[in-house]
Amino acid sequence: MGRWRPPRPRGSRYITPEGARRMRAEVKQLWEVERPRVTQAVSDAAKLGDRSENADYIYGKKRLREIDSRVRFLTKRLEEITVVDRIPDDREKIFFGAWVTLEDEHGVEVKYRIVGPDEFNVKEGLISMDSPVARALLGKRLDDEIEIQQMEQRVTYYIVEIEYPSPSAG
């Protein structure tokens, strides 16, 4: 059985200014800090002799491949993404970059920001614009309701607040 997997569909090409800054910072950290440190460790391990049984050498070479692969991916992705740093004219409607507060039938509120697929982090309330929740929200207005399938039940949420961060924020 081969390891081949069909390619994943490409995510949307939009990103917030904060997400782009985080990606550039990760490239800089990997390239200027971590890679030189690992390269030095591999060099030191290689001086010790037999490389075939040298765990530091083997792990270091593997880590260098991982770093190079991640830097290549991030660099290529940064070239093709579009940074959305403009607030829409109609701020009463949900677009990319909006913070949206939802309330369920029990009065429980949740707050999400619609961001690009490269920067989502559900723990921080950042959801990808390609996610089912974000797709249900995009284009909606204040006081609209959406239904979302959660586990084995449908939950109705009401849009109670829409906010856009200022372009200089973040």
What's the quick description here?
The chain is of the alpha/beta class.
Describe this protein's structure.
This protein is α/β, with parallel strands linked by helices and 170 residues long. The chain has 3 helices and 7 strands. The chain has helices at 17-46, 55-80, 132-137; strands spanning 14-15, 82-83, 99-104, 109-115, 126-128, 145-150, 153-163. The strands form 2 sheets. A 5-stranded mixed β-sheet has the order 5-4-3-7-6. Helix 1 packs antiparallel against helix 2. The longest helix is centred in the first third of the chain and has 30 residues, at 17-46. The N and C termini lie far apart (47 Å).
List keywords for this structure.
single chain; two-stranded parallel ribbon; 7 strands; 36% helix; 22% strand
Which SSEs are present, and which pair or pack?
Elements: E1 14-15, H1 17-46, H2 55-80, E2 82-83, E3 99-104, E4 109-115, E5 126-128, H3 132-137, E6 145-150, E7 153-163
Parallel strand pairs: 1-2, 4-5
Antiparallel strand pairs: 3-4, 3-7, 6-7
Helix pairs in contact: 1-2
Structure summary, number of beta strands: 7
Q: SSE order, as H and E?
A: EHHEEEEHEE
Largest beta-sheet characterization: 5 strands, mixed
State the shape: elongated
What structural category characterises the helix and strand content?
Answer: alpha/beta
Strand content: 15-25%
User: How much helix is in the residues?
Assistant: 25-40%
Describe the strand arrangement of the main beta sheet, using strand numbers. Answer: 5-4-3-7-6
Number of helices: 3
Low-confidence stretches: none
Report the span from N to C terminus.
47 Å
Please state the CA-atom Rg, rounded to the nearest Å: 22 Å
Mean pLDDT: 91
